[in-house]
Amino acid sequence: MVTALDKVNRSELYGWSDVEVLDKEGGTCEMAYLLDGRHVMPSGSMSLVKLDAGDRMVSTGDLVGFDADGHQVDKVPSVFDGPVTLTDGALDDYLALGVKAVYRLVMEEEGALVEKLRKGALYRLAFNYRADYEADDAFLISNGEAEFLVSGQVADLEFLSKEQHAVPVEDEGAAEEAADDLMDFSMF
After folding, report:
1. pLDDT tens digit string along 77-130?
2. pTM for the complete prediction?
3. Tens-digit pLDDT profile for residues 12-53
């Protein structure tokens, strides 16, 4: 049973660098934003604010989701709110995942799930860290020593093979204009 998700930070894997900008005297410069072309706002002083039709601030928790047809939608629960349904994952889907986050699974005990993952099984699930209107795609995977949950969105990719050739779509109007522009060398 998973007892916790330990987020793997990119900086822990790859390191990081800081860019420091200095003025002519060697003093450190700080980032600022120009607001309305006349107000200088220091970094960290601006954030996204949601306003209603009357320009009153609205809390994110008070917002309600709607689908493309204008029907109200329910939130997808968090993975921490109840049982999670796992399905067999496809390797092609995993490889097409636009990764948002990677979590190391902290397990209470090693059981059948860990054994299957360490033998190469791949499982897919809908993932929401917090309840939200749209779940991310996520996969459970193992490197043989530890187990991970990798979340993001699976891209809808179309692959072409050597035998498939893309056929350019020609605009009829452009083809007629090109035919009119052709020179008839017999007129010389």
Report:
1. 898 888 889 999 999 999 999 999 999 988 877 788 899 999 999 999 999 998
2. 0.64
3. 777 888 888 899 999 998 888 887 788 888 877 767 778 888
E-only strand ranges, 36-120? 39-42, 87-88, 97-107
Is 142 part of any domain? yes
Give the ranges where the chain is alpha helix by DSSP (H).
10-14, 91-95, 112-118, 172-181
Question: Looking at the 3D structure of the chain, how many domains does it have?
Answer: 1
Looking at the chain, how many residues does it have? 188
Please check whether residue 28 lies inside any domain of the structure.
no
Q: Tokens representing 75?
A: 């939130």
The encoded tokens of residue 135 equal: 């779940």
Q: Report yes or no on 82 lying in a domain.
A: yes
| CA 69 vs CA 66, 75, 142: distances in Å | 8, 17, 40
Contact 75, 131 (CB under 8 A): yes
Q: Within 10 A of 96 (CB to CB), how many other CB atoms are there?
A: 16
The pair of three-digit structure tokens given for residue 80, joined into one six-digit string: 């921490």
- Establish if 21 belongs to a structural domain: no
Q: Which domain holds residue 121?
A: 1-8+74-161
